[in-house]
TrEMBL record:
Gene3D superfamilies: P-loop containing nucleotide triphosphate hydrolases. The keyword Transcription regulation does not apply. Residues 565-608 form the DNA helicase Pif1-like 2B domain. This is ATP-dependent DNA helicase. Keywords: ATP-binding, DNA damage, DNA recombination, DNA repair, Helicase, Hydrolase, Nucleotide-binding. It catalyses: ATP + H2O = ADP + phosphate + H(+). Its cofactor is Mg(2+). It holds the Pfam family PIF1. InterPro entries: DNA_helicase_pif1-like_DEAD, Helitron_helicase-like, P-loop_NTPase, Pif1-like_2B_dom.
Length: 697
């Protein structure tokens, strides 16, 4: 808690800015020369003779970091000379350069000893569960490897090196190893430098279009930053006035223009969202939108929002002119009349004697329920189970208690215990409906995470559900061939277009058909393929396209280390895209639990009925609320550790994406009449193909 905080510059080795600069330099090299083929690492050997000969009495290598650094630097420069200038690896490219086996002692005794000393992983796993490479009971480096007779290309960029079966070799009296524990190495480099040098080969990935370093503008630079945002999003502006005039209104600053274009979050976006919704004159949907904003959008001035839009949200409620002091009594009278009109019994009570006269049939709570005057923590009401009052209590459905906050808590507890005893029911107040009124600012809040009753019914699966009950013939790697009756011959992009036409026939004639949209979907394993298919289909969809952009930021990034362009380019799992392209009548999928009771759950399929700058109008297509319409605003999404990002990304965007195509996981639990399955790669999880094929009725 002392000193002054400072930012380490890129000249400080190992600082964040130094690492960022090295990373950007590396990306520039990749852009110019392509991706690397060889990943070569070198580790200092503390047993080098040059190190041990320079140590003093009772000194260890750790005592002389200057000596280690100097000698390792000289070795490293010599390694670069051999690899870069002399081309030792290039000259032996026609031979086996990378090995992952323990050489025979009879053939190569020196290499045999060096490999056992420097190139054996771990051991870990059952041999050493406390090894640093262990995570969740497994080795992070996936050792021990599989035994292969020949080197072959793996499913990812890593090759599967030849590791032939050999007899176990004893490293010490407790550990024996074989070829499965060998780290890949280059024999020539290993013998020359006598240290750990890990050399692996990576399959060069397909070339992708990349852009070199772009110098961005910091938000701290004010108008320059907002001008940069305009130039990044507007296509072909004809003049300065064109950029400064969203919807025909000219603004005198770039910041105001950016906010009205919708490219940056406005300080008044929540208010504008409600303004747009109120113009549609749908009070029920407006109330639902208001609740959604309170839960997910974190408004700062809730009371002001309520006062501004109260009249719009209450338009479908009947209005009655009563005095302000009698409005609560009017509500009680209405409730009592409604309940009694159904032939049910309601008891009206109050804590104050003067208020009793205002309620029909009202009595004080102490008089009605015989609550002790001096009520204590363990008090009961003086009601016998055989009394007439007990019989009346068994017949009633509702109890109204006005001015409840004025009452001692022990009075409620006494009534609760008595009703449970009379009605033989352990539910609160014996299961009777309790309506409490008064100034609830005096009522204690609900105790969070209080005791709950956990009742679960466990259903055990008796039959294993797999393709063909696990009896279908398989090929290598346990892969099942799809029957040719349901497959489409692969002919490049033409096959994708055919899959779309077969799944969505005559799409342009059904742009507003909700039943047509809910009966069709294309399933694919990964989100990137879902995005690709949705982009293709939305371009063929009739109607005006609207690009709804998100507002992205990094939590706690006060120094703007992460540029907006980079944040816009990433879409973690469960996040909506930065650029959400929608058209009226297009199917959407909800990505968050907004209002489960109203049918707005994660995975609900929706139909876009209208879009605005700060709000989307949707119609529910699935569940028990089919046909119900609602409004959805932009809400904040935060990444978790499972996203694999070194920071917490906050994206404010509409919680949905197009659902012409959806992932197989999202389709689980849904029934779809017409399903197309797009498998550009193998399914990566057990049961996925079963889920995809079983979606059809």
């Amino acid at each position: 808690n002392i000193g002054q905080r400072t930012i380490l510059p890129s000249t400080f080795i190992g600082s964040r800015r130094d690492l960022t600069q090295h990373y950007e330099d590396g990306m520039a090299i990749v852009l110019n020369d392509g991706k690397p083929d060889i990943f070569l690492t070198m580790t200092c050997n503390l047993s080098w003779s040059k190190i041990s000969s320079q140590l003093g009495p009772h000194q260890t290598p750790q005592d002389r970091p200057d000596l280690l650094t100097r000698i390792f630097r000289s070795k490293f420069e010599q390694l670069k000379e051999d690899v870069i200038n002399k081309g030792v690896i290039e000259k032996v490219k026609n031979y086996i350069v990378v090995r992952a086996e323990i050489p025979k002692f009879e053939d190569e005794p020196q290499l045999h000893e060096v490999v056992l000393k420097h190139m054996i992983h771990g051991p870990c796993g059952t041999l050493n569960p406390n090894s640093p490479c262990m995570k969740n009971g497994q080795c992070k480096k996936m050792y021990p490897k599989q035994v292969y007779q020949e080197t072959r290309q793996g499913n990812d960029s890593y090759p599967q090196y030849r590791r032939r079966f050999n007899h176990l070799i004893s490293v010490n009296r407790n550990v024996t190893i074989d070829n499965r524990w060998v780290v890949p190495y280059n024999p020539w480099l290993l013998l020359k430098y006598n240290c750990h040098i890990n050399k692996e080969w990576y399959r060069r990935m397909s070339k992708k279009k990349v852009i070199g370093r772009i110098y961005t503008v910091s938000p701290l630079e004010g108008e320059k930053f907002y001008l940069c945002v305009l130039l990044s999003h507007l296509k072909g502006p004809m003049s300065w006035e064109d950029m400064l005039s969203p919807n025909g209104t000219c603004f005198n600053t770039f910041k105001k223009a950016v906010e009205h274009w919708g490219f940056l979050e406005s300080d008044n976006s929540i208010h504008e969202c409600l303004v747009e919704a109120s113009s549609l004159r749908m009070p029920y949907a407006l109330r639902s939108l208001f609740v959604t904003i309170l839960i997910f959008c974190e408004p700062t001035n809730i009371r002001q929002l309520w006062d501004d839009f109260y009249t719009y949200m209450m338009e479908d409620y009947p209005s009655t002119s009563v005095a302000a002091t009698t409005s609560k009594t009017f509500l009680y009278r209405t409730l009592i009349a409604k309940v009694r009109s159904k032939g049910q019994i309601v008891l009206a009570t109050t804590s104050s004697g003067i208020v009793v006269t205002l309620l029909p049939g009202g009595r004080t709570a102490h008089s009605r329920f015989k609550i002790p005057i001096n009520v204590e923590a363990d008090s009961f009401c003086f009601i016998s189970k055989q009394s007439d009052l007990a019989k009346l209590i068994r017949e009633i459905t509702t109890i109204i208690w006005d001015e409840a906050p004025m009452t001692n808590r022990y009075a409620f507890e006494a009534l609760d215990r008595s009703l449970k005893d009379i009605l033989d029911c352990n539910a609160p107040f014996g299961g009777k409906i309790m309506i409490l009124g008064g100034d609830f600012c005096q009522v204690l809040p609900v105790v969070l995470k209080d005791k709950t009753c956990d009742h679960y019914k466990i259903i055990i699966l008796q039959n294993i559900m797999r393709i063909g009950d696990g009896n279908e013939p398989t090929k290598c790697d346990d892969m099942v061939k799809v029957p040719h009756q349901i497959e489409i011959t692969w002919e490049g992009e033409n096959s994708i277009q055919k899959l779309i036409r077969d799944t969505f026939p005559q799409l342009q004639s059904h742009t507003w058909d909700a039943s047509y949209m809910v009966e069709r979907a294309i399933l694919t394993p990964k989100n990137e393929d879902v995005q690709k298919l949705n982009d293709i289909i939305i371009n063929h969809f009739l109607g005006e396209e609207r690009e709804l952009l998100s507002f992205d930021e990094v939590e706690g990034d006060t120094h703007n280390l992460y540029q907006q362009e980079y944040l816009h380019s990433i879409t973690p799992g469960g996040f909506p895209p930065h650029d959400l392209k929608v058209k009226k009548g297009a199917p959407l999928m909800l990505l968050r639990n907004i209002d489960p009771k109203a049918g707005l759950c994660n995975g609900t399929r929706l139909l876009c009925r209208g879009f605005f700058m700060n709000m989307l109008g949707v119609e529910i297509l699935t569940g028990h609320n089919i046909g119900k319409r609602s409004f959805l605003p932009r809400i904040k999404h935060k990444t978790t550790e499972s996203a694999g990002l070194p920071f917490v990304l906050i994206r404010k965007q509409f919680p949905m994406k197009l659902s012409f195509a959806i992932t197989i996981n999202k389709s689980q639990g849904q029934t779809i009449l017409n399903v197309g399955i797009y498998l550009p790669r193998h399914v990566f999880s057990r049961g996925q193909l079963y889920v995809a094929l079983s979606r059809v009725v």
